[in-house]
Give the backbone structure.
Amino acid sequence: MATTAPYLSEIEAPSRADVDALRGLTLLEFGTDWCGHCRAAQPAVAQALAQQPQWQHLKVEDGPGRALGRSFRVKLWPTLLVLREGREVARVVRPTAVQDVLTALVV
């Protein structure tokens, strides 16, 4: 499995205003490095993004009380938010296959 970028800590993560101001296409991923579901999803996410290079990928560490995740009502990890111009257009929770992610990226 290829090494993936780490999740941004609470200090490094963008604010909700920063996310809302994003331009273009962004896949915003919430999870943690120690989560088994998150680790299992990484190959599918990486393969899907390799087929859709126009997408920016931001990985944000989530947890109880983390403002950004709560503002998007994230309850399970990983949760992938598909954003266009900072607005959510699709969501994938606990993807297990490349097609799960690709389907969301083409909305």
Remarks:
- The chain has a mean pLDDT of 95.
- Residues 36-51 form the longest helix (16 residues).
